[in-house]
Amino acid sequence: MWTPRIQLPSLILGVAATTAWAAPGRGTAPTSVAAALRVSPEAPELKARPTLVGRLRETPHNYFRFVNRPFSEAVCRMFDDVQGSLPDVNLHGDAHVEQYAVTSLGWGLTDFDDSARGPYVVDLVRFGVSLELASRQKGWAPAGGALDDFLRGYRDALSNPGVDRPPARTIRSALAHFGFDHALALRRAEAQVDADPVSPSELEGDFEAYVDTMRMRIPSLPATGFRIKAAGHLRTGIGSALDEKYLLRVEGETDAEGDDQILEAKLVRLLSDTTCVHTEAGPERVSLGMSILARAPFLFSGTFTHAHRWFWVHAWTDDYVELSIGSALSTPGELRQVAYDVGTQLGRAHPEEQAFEPAPRASRARLLESTLANEFRIRAAIDELTAATLAAWRAFRGEGPLAVSAQVVPDGG
User: Fold this and answer.
1) Is 276 within 8 Å of 83 (Cβ atoms)?
2) Where are the domains positioned within the chain?
3) Edge-to-edge strands, sheet with 320-322
């Protein structure tokens, strides 16, 4: 079979959502930092996407997801004076609560579009702010406990990469929604393809290089297995909402309809001019990031060029549930369990060797020492950027002093 499944442990989505946008409470954001995260709903890219604008207005966390590039730059600048002493690691690049998924293959952070190299604080601060915004969205107290667990998980994995304490309730909840029904998964994907179809002939010629790579990697795959039967634009996501994406239905192992496979092809964005994030891997950085960071990488990961741009391809699983702050977290304890698990995932992956990168690996001991030495600054940056994100979000909604300013949409969303 093309789509083997790894049996998940026998570990329930609680639906409890309250909304309370409390004041930051632990300091206020300097106007310059908040302004750096400011985008205008009047930007042409957004005016053409009113549904996206509506989602960005809904919650600070949605807005936070959209402004990853300027957010990462803000983190770089906050630690500019000590960057030379911060170990370079394998960054996820966009770690947040709603990147956590449970799939037919496994669980943990997914979506490696922004994976690269850089100081570990980029991932720690971003996920820490996500925890704060998630906690506020639920109407809970500030996420101090979840942040403690996240940082503890990170340190634990640096000390012992084998540590494993999955969030049992969250995984069990997701499994309850799984159908393990390939036919149903195909129908759902086909509905998205039909919503905005693309002629397979527009992609077939460029797609051949990807197919050749897959067949060299897995010689048993049939020559016709990747024949594109249907294709369409994929209009999903928040942080990647403006990215060019395609969904492809391909032939599969035989010419029977029942074993067709679904592939996603997503534009590999150029890294922006962020001062401390970099890569030597080129368009392979996404596949590389997934291979290092993911507990169970997606199948058939590869790249191809279309219209002189690189696209990353991977197979969809039959079952996939991303964590939703609004519906998948019913208690602060569940958030803390997810936080700890993400900490261990990053702690294992950050110092791993990379095949493409000439930079030496940061030793776990050195990374642990640096984390402990800079924990106060990391926590302070989380507080400041939480406040800045809230201020920028309010301005996006036409509220607050920043509302009079207007900037363009950040490169890549």
Assistant:
1) yes
2) 31-176+331-404, 182-320
3) 107-109, 100-103, 320-322
